[in-house]
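Listing 4. Sequential folding, example run.
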Amino acid sequence: MRPFELATPGSLDAATAEPATYLAGGTTLVDLMKLNVLTPQRVLDINELPLRGLDSEDGLRIGALERMSDIAAHPDVYPMISRALLLSASQQLRNMASIGGNLLQRTRCTYFRDVAMPCNKREPGSGCPALVGANRMHAVLGTSDSCAATHASDVAVAFTALDAEVRLLGSEGSRTVPLAEFYRLPGDTPEVENDLRPGELITEVVVPRLDWAANSTYVKVRDRQSYEFALSSAAVALDVRDDRIADSRVAVGGVATVPWRLHAVEEALRGAPVAEESFERAADAAVAGARTRGANGFKPALLKRTVVRALLELTEGSR
């Protein structure tokens, strides 16, 4: 780890006065600093800033510094959010990691985390060994010839399914961005991962009210049931009326470069009977446009099965 300046800003204005690297739970930042993947000169500890709290009066408003474990245990949080958080990490990490930090965590691509290897995300223009090398964990949706790294956050998948927005604050004021628009596809600039401007902070996550999201879940498939990142995951909410699906929300993770909303699957489910056959047909749309490389060729089929499994889990008592 290289030397750096550590400071504690006394206010939001002080924190956003000039660009810096922000420290909340530190569960990603410190790891990457130890590996010299990130080498910030100035780090601001923002844990004393007023960015906590959960308001559920009309939808959900979650402060960016709320810890994952506290939000997972909150009785007003939709099941898909709670399950995504509980399946994200070990209890110790969930007790430290913040909601805002989780949304901004960097990819777990081994090439990105190894400074001895080229990586377009870490060093633009240096190349992407994952395109032809060890790529079992890599994305099949939203990739480009510059990057195929998966997005690591579980709860971002649930938030994307629920049309969540992030409130951002910088020296030029505050703004609100839909989470689905906040993350950037790699294209030719994989080093630009999101819409966050220099000196901006995530201050809050806002989830619109959706009463039938009480019937929701998050399914995560991974190599081991203990702490591990997703090979495939699905956040699903269903509005079931008279044994038919009136509406749905479906987003997936572990298979894409950003949290991936499956609008085509949602459309295929609307009006369909609650039956495994309906789920299988709708889930066919999940893999449209998937692009496999080498060892990740199993992922489209796994993605489809993950979506079907989540749908079956939600409707088991009604069939």
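-- end of first protein; second protein begins --
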Amino acid sequence: MKILSDKNNLQILHEDNHLIVVNKRVGDIVQGDKTGDKPLSEVVKEYIKDKYNKPGEVFLGVVHRLDRPTTGIVVFARTSKALTRMNELFSNRETQKTYWAIVKKMPEKAEDKLVHFIKRNEKNNTSKAHLKEVPESKLASLDYKIIKELNNYFALEINLHTGRHHQIRAQLSAIGSPIKGDLKYGFDRSNPDGGIHLHARKLVFIHPVSKENVTIVAPVPNDVIWNAI
């Protein structure tokens, strides 16, 4: 398993008085859950407390989440004002999110728009992508394109239009191209570190306070396949 983030090995991508953006590792959970494992939010709080010698409790707001086996950009808010405004940006789809994924089976088209209806199964924490609307499903869409052909794999760049539960994983699985290592969605074997080859690569948004355009790019994890892109 990979070494999870601690306050000494955090990869900070952006930091100012209102926001802190981290490159999440495989296995990190963004927010506390039933596992009881220490979440990334607590690690970032410790980092801020130490760096700025802050007495008492540190405020940190979770703006959005990434699945535990996924890597890449995670945004936290350091002020309540920034949290409120960032939540609005994300809920109103006023951000541009770009992901990279590695798949073994080449999609039928080199680039395409995928539109499905995603239905979540709370019992086993999965989502299924349907071509037609079914009860309790939500519309999900994304664009993808092949950006590199590797020896046995294909690298895809994905732009999300909606933010549904396990959306990219479920939609790529639905077209027969599950993400490398993603046993839950049909890949044939797991990755040694327990992660999947899905990376939140780029995020573009308007800063909630300064109103400047912010572009964040997260380096990929250090492994043979990612390094080949």
